[in-house]
């Protein structure tokens, strides 16, 4: 199975019927990953999470989550392409157990379906923005005309952030607990000010309140990578974030936009904005600003072209730095020493902790030396 096969990403795509399509003079691609939406030019388009990249597609599944966004672009005469990523919506795969690298690979498969003759924009909401930004940091030379993010998951508010000890355990030992799921403790009433939308969230059986430890580990390892390498992000970017967002920290969005290497960077903060801005009154302002922002970038945009790279760089570069693990093991050894000393009550018996080491030396190392 080739990389370009959409079967690789265990996703569903629903195609518009041909009689709906109308030929238009100017075509523009958008991608919005998981929550990701992809838009080209179409008279009416509905969406949910992740957009595909080529052809006249739209996502019917769970469409209420992002139909306002898709409808906005559709009325601007852009075709909308949508897809569910693996493990999300109606796509196959374990729920909430994927790594960021897995989702980046899905986005790569989609990007390779993009028309070479059209400019390409990416739109990411929440974790979808995390997927897009981290992918583009590792691939700074793609011909992406612009990136739009709403409530990007670049950090967590203090009341949702876990302590440094738990983060250390998840980062360094989470791969042993990948099948374990944890409660995300997301309060649906804090996502939006729209009561009708909150009711739909409660009734939506595709909304999952759990997260795999493996995915949590991947997120916590990706976040520091993003800020450490933010200067490598060279694409035009526009971020919208609400200050009342209880899921993603707007302060981290401000930090990222200040550090990012791109000279074409903008951020709009809403004092009373919640996490899902597309369902609240702030969306009117977002539409107006996006309309102007896109028109300006279109003037200097170029076709996406053809990817010459056989593979995009995904995930985080492997580092063989084991210093944290060594420090952790040293602390455990120190605790062992202190426990033995306190229990025995005599320093003359300090030799007890060395017994396992001496046995190992006699049985293994000494024999090899002979």
From TrEMBL:
Transferase in keyword set: no
Domain Serine aminopeptidase S33: 64-281
Transmembrane segments: 325-342
GO molecular function: lipase activity
Source superkingdom: Eukaryota
Gene3D superfamilies found in the cross-reference section: alpha/beta hydrolase
InterPro entries: AB_hydrolase_fold, Hydrolase_4, MAG_DAG_Lipase
Keyword Membrane found: yes
Alphabetic keyword roster: Membrane, Transmembrane, Transmembrane helix
GO CC terms of this entry: membrane
The protein's name in its UniProt record: Lysophospholipase, putative
Organism: Paramecium tetraurelia
């Amino acid at each position: 199975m080739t990389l370009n096969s959409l079967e690789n990403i265990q996703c569903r795509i629903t195609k518009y019927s041909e009689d709906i399509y109308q030929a238009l003079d100017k075509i523009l691609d958008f991608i919005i990953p998981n929550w990701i939406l992809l838009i080209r030019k179409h008279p009416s388009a509905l969406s949910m999470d992740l957009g595909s990249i080529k052809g006249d597609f739209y996502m019917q599944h769970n469409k209420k989550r992002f139909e306002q966004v898709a409808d906005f672009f559709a009325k601007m005469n852009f075709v909308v392409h949508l897809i569910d990523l693996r493990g999300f919506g109606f796509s196959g795969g374990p729920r909430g157990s994927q790594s960021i690298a897995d989702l980046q690979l899905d986005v790569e498969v989609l990007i390779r379906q993009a028309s070479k003759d059209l400019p390409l924009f990416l739109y990411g909401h929440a974790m979808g923005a995390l997927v897009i930004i981290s992918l583009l940091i590792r691939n700074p030379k793609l011909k992406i005309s612009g990136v739009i993010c709403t409530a990007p998951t670049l950090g967590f508010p203090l009341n949702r952030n876990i302590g440094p000890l738990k983060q250390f355990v998840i980062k360094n030992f989470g791969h042993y607990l990948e099948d374990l799921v944890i409660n995300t403790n997301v309060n649906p009433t804090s996502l939006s000010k729209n009561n009708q939308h909150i009711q739909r969230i409660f009734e939506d059986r595709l909304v999952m309140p759990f997260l795999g430890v493996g995915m949590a580990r991947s997120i916590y390892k990706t976040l520091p990578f993003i800020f450490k390498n933010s200067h490598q992000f060279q694409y035009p970017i526009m971020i919208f974030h609400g200050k009342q967002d209880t899921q993603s920290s707007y302060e981290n969005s401000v930090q990222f936009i200040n550090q990012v290497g791109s000279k074409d960077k903008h951020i709009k903060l809403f004092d009373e904005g919640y996490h899902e801005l597309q369902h609240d009154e702030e969306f009117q302002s977002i539409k107006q600003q996006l309309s102007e922002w896109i028109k300006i970038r279109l003037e200097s945009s170029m076709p996406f072209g053809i990817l010459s790279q056989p593979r995009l760089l995904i995930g985080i570069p492997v580092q063989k730095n084991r210093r944290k693990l060594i420090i952790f093991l040293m602390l455990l050894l120190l605790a062992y020493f202190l426990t033995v000393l306190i229990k025995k009550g005599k320093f003359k018996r300090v030799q007890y902790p060395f017994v396992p080491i001496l046995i190992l030396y006699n049985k293994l190392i000494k024999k090899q030396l002979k």
